[in-house]
Design goal:
By secondary structure, the chain is an alpha+beta fold. It has a two-stranded antiparallel sheet with strand order 1-4. It has a two-stranded antiparallel sheet with strand order 2-3. A hairpin with a 2-residue loop joins β2 and β3.
Amino acid sequence: HYALWKSGIYHRDVNCDNLKYYWLNGKIMAVLNDYDLASLATSTSPLGNERTGTIPFMVIDFLSDIGQDGELELLYRHNLESFIWVFIWIC
């Protein structure tokens, strides 16, 4: 996830259904899939997806009026918060 973020690919919809895992040589390998709502940092065109995400896992900032209007910049910590909501949901 971090490598993609640093490359300018922002997932924007971290949720339980988008997290997969498998075993490889006795180790658990995690995969974040489903990039249909992803955005590119280099895109200059409007995305039209300001409110992307699955509500139980959405970042609190994006549930505010400003976030719903698409006026907040997506930060790496926003995706990390979504991961935290997923882990709380799973537990």
